Amino acid sequence: MTGFRSLKLSLRFIIPLVVSLGLLAIAVVPLVDKLNLRWFVRDMDMRSQLIANTLHEPLAELIGQGNKTKINSLLLRAIKDERLLALGFCSDEGALLYRTPTFPKSISCEEVPSDSKASSRILRLPEGAVHVARHHIVPETGAKGDLILVHDTSFMERRSADTRKYIILLFVVLGLVTSLITVFVAHLSWHGWMEGVRAMLKGEGLLKPFSPQSINSELQPLVGDLKTLMRSLDAERRMADDSTITWSPDTLRKLLHKQLTGEKIIVVSNREPYIHSNNNGEIEVHRPASGLVTAVEPVMRACSGTWIAHGGGSADRETVDAHDRVMVPPDKPEYNLRRIWLTEEEEKGYYYGFSNEGFWPLCHIAHVRPVFRTSDWEQYVKINQRFADAVVTEADSDNPVVLVQDYHFALLPGMIRTLLPKATIITFWHIPWPNPESFGICPWREELLKGMLGSTILGFHTPYHCKNFLETVDRYLETRIEHESSTISRRGQLTMVESYPISIQWPPPWHGALPPVEQTRAEILTELGLPADQLLGIGIDRMDYTKGILERFNAVERMLELHPELVGRFSFIQIAAPSRSALEEYQAFETRLYALEKRINARFTRDGRAAIILKAEHHEPDQVNRFYRAAQVCMVTSLHDGMNLVAKEYVAARDDEQGVLVLSQFTGAANELYEALVVNPYHVEQTAEALYQGLIMPEYEQQERMRSMRAQVRDFNVYRWAGRMLLDAARVRQREKLAARIGRVP
Ligand code: F6P
Fold first, then answer.
1. Which of 123, 170, 403, 452, by CA, is between 20 and 30 Å from 44?
2. Tens-place pLDDT, residues 696-705
3. Long-range contacts of residues 133-136, Cβ cutoff 8 Å, at least 24 apart
């Protein structure tokens, strides 16, 4: 088939080539004929001149003597030359006085050229063509006249015919040789092009960089165009997908069914979505304060499958089956939670140590130095391997779709890849990725990067974090990076690095089922013992130094300094869920926070109405939601944050289209929620001013801003986040299948 195609391709060149050569031959042959004739005539002229010069003197003498016999004998001797056919002598009066017997009868003295321009000519006689030349002879006495030299030119015809034959032969040989070369080159080129296009279809250049071996040099100028075309098709398809799809749990389910043929999803994270704890003999279920859980849990409910996580609750072991599994959510079971157990020592090294004393401050530029210990690293490696083994146990095929979550599992993608080479591994990094210099201080930087490059797709919240990651890999690993398509190739493994801004579920779970905002606000104010017209600000965070809570408190203090009329009229509620409190850094942070709260409240508490209400305890999502609805302003002042879902939750909570969001410019959310009052949390006055502006903002402006932010969170919800990753994964799987199929075609 390939041979036939390359022959067809060759014919496209050969047919015009043969036709052109034929036309060229037709044009060339008469030209060469004419040229030949001219050369022959010139030769004959020279020859005639030579003979005439030789005969001139004796002939003039004999004519002067009038010796006819001697003249005839002279002429007869002269025509012994094989080419000279005949000689004659014409008098000036036009009478043929002497001639050899061979002198053609058809030639008369008149026909002999006699003008001054030409002294010879070719005459076509019945016997054949002859060359006739004349040479004027002036004897001292006797008749003056011309010596007529007649040369046989039949050899010219023979030679012309031969030349014609050779020229035609030359053109035929030329045609044949060129055709053969063309067929050969066309065959090779066809083969090369096919290989190149095949490489393209396998995803090279788009999903992976072109390898110089797979694309031959003739195709190189086309590579750019092909890549652009493929990418624009991909982008168009993505855009079409994104703009036409309203992302919901149902869309996600359909996508899984259609694009991933109902593949079971396996999620891996450190934090579990439901924690069972023992409260004096009573088993309670909690939802942890975790952006990761907030985002991934609704996706899991939509997709089903298995979520593998650390079982850290005091009653977790009591609630699982023999395979350490429990169906969740507890009130409406929809997916499996597979718990992994860690000893205290393991948790200390892997979670508290390497993940949260090393990786966490390493990725968050928040002025807390990372600490790296070999013992922590060893636990980190060990626990990553334990989760990889659990993935293999939970997978029901050799190519499952695995969603690896966050910095606790940088090594996991590489480990899964070793155990299940055909798995589609989507890793999502929930925290920022630092610049190469900052990351470079990690003693195990190469191992971590190699582990992450086991992923098929590696997702970050923002393009900026993707760029940092690509630069880090470029700095510390031997890889090939295709910046245009954002892919990294290492030892035949391709990783696509893409930004997928995370979000929350839409519509929110309580949609349409909550009392009006005014009622909730009134209830909260009563619970807090505050008057009905008290203005409220809210901050919801884990007790973490990256969240900018100290900076936020400083801004509250400054705002009250600048606007004393609000002292006693405004309270800022800070919910700080206890987090990683086994770590010194976190304990110190908590101490500082309490001290700051105390100092500010000492200055600005009026009639029992505190400026800051610090609630350092866990709150379930529905409780948090009440505070969102009650507060006039929500403050998110992270010093560095991958996304920050509190910002989006606040927007989702405000179905009354009121409320103002003060948002740190160092969060991923600031890339999406433009209508927030965006601040630099390190700048106390700027943040204080934004808080004040939020409190006095007219209702119509609040509505405009909130409406626009709600549309953004609605359209770019968490189903879209997961859907885009799964769509990309489906495309990669399709490409791999196609590549495998094409690879088998001979
Ligand atoms: O923000 C990073 C992150 O790991 C999230 O993924 C998660 O929501 C949060 O921190 C909670 O951390 P932890 O699991 O340590 O309580």
1. 170
2. 999 999 999 9
3. 133/44, 133/45, 133/48, 133/49, 133/52, 134/90, 135/48, 135/49, 135/52, 135/53, 135/56
Q: How far apart are the C-alpha atoms of 390 and 268, rounded to whole Å?
A: 9
What is the C-alpha separation between 565 and 243, in angstroms, rounded? 48
**Secondary structure class of 111 (helix, strand, coil):** coil
Interval between CA 554 and ligand 1 midpoint (Å): 25
Same domain, 329 and 458: yes
360 alpha carbon – ligand 1 mean position (Å): 10
Q: Among 406, 246, 374, which residue's Cα sits nearest to residue 310? A: 406
Q: Counting atoms of ligand 1 from 1, which one is nearest the CA of 355?
A: 15
My answer on whether 445 and 529 are in the same domain is no
The Cα 594–Cα 616 span in angstroms is 9
Residue 448 lies in a domain: yes
Which residue among 430, 433, 646 has the greatest number of ligand 1 atoms within 8 angstroms of its CB, and so is best to mutate? 430
Which residues are CB-neighbours of 188 under 8 A, at least 6 positions away?
Answer: none
Is the pLDDT reported for residue 206 higher than 50?
no
Q: For residue 525, is it within any domain?
A: yes
Does residue 619 lie in a domain region? yes
Ligand 1 atom closest to the Cα of residue 580 is: 15
On whether both 534 and 495 belong to a single domain, the answer is: no
Give tens-digit pLDDT for 360-416: 999 999 999 999 999 999 999 999 999 999 999 999 999 999 999 999 999 999 999
**Ligand 1 atom with the shortest distance to the CA of 293:** 8
| Residue span of the structural domain in which 447 resides | 249-477+488-499
DSSP 243-263: HH----HHHHHHHHHHHSTTP
Same domain, 459 and 555: no
Same domain, yes or no, for 157 and 47? yes
| pLDDT recorded at residue 548 | 98
712 φ, ψ to 5°? -65, -50
Query: What is the CATH number for 105?
Result: 3.30.450.20
**SS3 state at 658:** coil
CA distances from 148 to 40, 125, 153, 282, 466 (A): 18, 16, 15, 142, 101
Q: Find the residues whose C-beta lies inside 6 A of ligand 1.
A: 270-271, 290-292, 406, 430-431, 542, 579-580
Cα 291 to ligand 1 centroid, rounded to whole Å: 6
Same domain? For 60 and 112 the reply is: yes
Closest CA relative to residue 542, chosen from 636, 663, 631, 429: 636
Residue 721 Cα to ligand 1 midpoint, Å, equals 18
For residue 295, count other CB atoms closer than 10 A to its CB.
23
Determine, yes or no, domain membership for 416. Answer: yes
- Tell me the CA–centroid distance for residue 290 and ligand 1, in Å: 5
Distance 58 CA to ligand 1 centre (A): 128
Pocket residue to mutate for ligand 1, from 270, 292, 342, 585, most atoms within 8 A of Cβ: 292
557 CA → ligand 1 middle, Å: 29
Proportion of the chain in helix, strand, coil states, percent, rounded to 5: 50, 20, 30
Average pLDDT rounded to a whole number, residues 42-60: 87
232 CA from centroid of ligand 1 (Å): 36
pLDDT attached to residue 267: 98
Domain of 547, CATH number, reads: 3.40.50.2000
| Atom 7 in ligand 1: residue holding the nearest Cα | 290
- Candidate from 403-407, 498-502, 507-511 with smallest mean pLDDT: 507-511
Name the token pair of 676: 């927030």
> Which among 269, 271, 307, 618 is the best mutation to test ligand 1's pocket, defined by most ligand atoms within 8 Å of the CB?
271
Question: Residue with the nearest Cα to atom 12 of ligand 1?
Answer: 290
Residues 461 and 319 in one domain: yes
Instruction: State mean pLDDT over 135-140.
Output: 82
Total domain count for the chain?
3
